[in-house]
Specification:
The complex is a heterodimer. Chain A is α/β, with parallel strands linked by helices. In chain A, 37% of the residues lie in helices and 21% in strands. Chain B has a single domain, classed as MetI-like (MetI-like fold, Orthogonal Bundle). Classes of the chains: A alpha/beta, B mainly alpha.
Amino acid sequence: MENSAKAAAYVSMKNVGHKYDPRPETPMVVQGINLDIHRHEFVAVVGPSGCGKSTLLRMVAGLLIPSHGEVSVFNLPVTEPRDDVGIVFQKANLLPWLTVRKNVLFPLKHKYGSYSATDEKRANELLEMAGLTQFADKMPDELSGGMQQRVGIIRALLLNPDILLMDEPFSALDALTREQIGFDLLDIWKKNPKTVLFITHSISEAVLLSDRILVMSKRPGTVLDLIEVDLPRPRSSKTINSPRFAELTDLIRGYIYEPNVPA
Amino acid sequence: MNQTYQPKSWLAHQANRFAPGLFFIGLVLLWELVCRFGNVPNYILPSPSAIFMAFFDVEFSRWLTHLWATLRVALMGFALSIVIAIPLSIGMMRSELMNRVLYPALIVIQSTPVVAVAPLIIVLLGTDDPSRVLITCLITFFPLVVSTTTGMLETPPEMIELSQSLRAPRYRETWQIRIPYAIPHIFSGLRVSITLAIIGAVVAEFVAAEEGLGYFIQFSTSFFKIPQAFAGLIFLSVISLLLFKSIQWIQAWWFPWSLPKKK
């Protein structure tokens, strides 16, 4: 069982494509995407704005059904959102009328109408893990952007999903906070191993965090390359200074900028 | 370069602080002077001092009766319009058909001058509270419907996706996400409506009533007791202002997170 679970892909995309408008003359948003994500693997997707990265994430989340090909999770086609998939949104997406703790507990409250003392204990543990215990009763707008996004991450972990989908989660943060929260995320990921699909438009962020990187072209988004990131873990600020890190970022940068370089 | 504006002396500082009050006092003084030295008769434009004296020409209990009559109708009409407007907005947000059917009807109601309809309502419902409450309700409910609907429709799509990703029932999406999100909008609607409620009550009293500040003003005017009419007018402005303020206090007390952030 364990072996087959390891061998089988947790998330699988087969020749996936999508267009929002079914008429034949409208262009595809994404096209011909093939990708298998394995257990506890961290896969990043990078590509220029509008290349359909977020569309891809929404299809895995079950929020959008692809018009072409098939997305499956645990070998079952995705037809609706699943309990074992958690989403971390862009800009934290916290509810400003709830305290930090209630935001973390919101998925239970929203899904089932209530939560138990055990759930509250779990929320407190998550808050502690993210170093937010003392902010648990504050309102989201009293927290810094980085702290808000840490709340967003642990909220996605509340239902203990096997798969974590992250949609440009750090794009609203300043550069320094962004680097720090990247390491925070790796720390959280180490303590709670998950299968992660991480959408970003930051090349260095993708290289720093992930095991593999799917590089996408401009719209209609297709796969330009699937790159194995062979940097050793645990990764730290030293990783950023390693020559291999520079090689990998250069490689990806080549894919993204090459077609636009004027002759 | 970076200094904020600072008044130069203590005197300038105090003048700056009390400027709105001083302006108001100055205006009243000017009014008094014009009346005294311009030989303006009291039945054309009474002086502030004459208006002040007129307060005592009417028994205190009579003032209270009129005040309460207007306040009662205004508050009942306002309450009725909240009870109608909010469920109506939810219905129009949830059902495209309901929106298509009701929206034109609402526009027609809103664009018909309530003052013109008021006598007809009195014919229909009699000269008691029900007709006055209905007139008040007709004048107050449109801003509430618009603000509530706008607020709910402006809910960020990511918050809705959070709800969808949890496969939560739609009534919880409405109650736990859309309505709280609309709170600031609802309150700006309430602030507009509460002042309209006083207008509605007065319009209704102009048409048919035996008590109330609107009735009192009309009655006093027809007997050329202009200072008394002005005194009634001042009462109206004061309760209108207090009601407006109460809405702000309620918002600050119950929904402090919904106030604009102080920068």
